[in-house]
Here is the input.
Amino acid sequence: MAPTDGIEDDCERLLARVAGGDRAALGRLFAAEAGRLIAIARRIVRRREVAEEIVQDAFVAVWRRAASFDPARGAGRAWLTAIVRNRALNAVRDGSRLDFADEAQLALFADRGADAHAAYDALSDGDALRRCLSALEPRRRESILLAYVVGWTHGEIAARLDAPVGTVKAWIRRGVIALQECLS
Here is the structure.
């Protein structure tokens, strides 16, 4: 027996109880599966808050349609995954969950980026921090300034620098290590 068989059996038992109107079973099913389903949705929609909303909507659908689940046609976890995956793909296709910023918000966002450069420019030429920051590759330096001076998220920095989020994280991590070494 594979380790997931017990989880699958649990999922199918809970789905049967949900089909019978058992709210506590729905709560246990949510507690057991929501984390995994949010991760799946997040890989598709790329935003945690949207992924959480999709999973919540999916569990409302599970509550309403649990009686339509047929274990002879497939596993319970696969059924839940398909519901979440389809809802996430629909969200990406219709774009209804995208938030668009107005001109004033975009201008404010741009001004906050200028704050990072102003803080760097305010450092005196003899300042050790300025010397160490100057030694960094420009995009690493800008990533660090935007993260630590302005407080932007990795996603906001990635959008500003037109770079993947993972790359921005690496620039910041490596840049901070280089700064620590330079300043010590």
